[in-house]
Design a protein that fits this description.
about 100 residues, globular, about 0% helix, about 45% strand, mainly beta
């Protein structure tokens, strides 16, 4: 894997990886899972007691691992969510090309 640069001006998500597999429920059933890992800008909110800067790393639940197919580390992406906050679709955002 080669390195990539994060555009400090970009205000969206940057794909940095994912995970998929199965987990065991309390009733001993095996259930599939998929997570996407992204970077996004930290909040711009400030107060006397709080200040954040830079980027935050986030793990988002996905409905299906196929959502990540074709993505490359460093791609700028748009995430689309269902009403439960799970990622249902991912699209490249503009001229993504590996974060370049």
């Amino acid at each position: 894997m080669s390195g990539f640069k994060v555009d400090l001006e970009y205000q969206g998500y940057v794909f940095v990886g994912g995970a998929q597999g199965t987990f065991e429920t309390q009733d001993k059933r095996r259930m599939p899972f998929a997570n996407i890992f992204v970077l996004s800008p930290a909040s711009t909110y400030t107060s006397d007691e709080y200040r954040a800067f830079g980027f935050k790393a986030e793990k988002k639940k996905c409905l299906d691992a196929k959502i990540m197919e074709g993505l490359n580390i460093g791609d700028k992406v748009k995430l689309f969510f269902d009403d439960k906050g799970r990622v249902i679709s991912v699209a490249l955002d503009g001229d993504s090309a590996g974060g370049k």
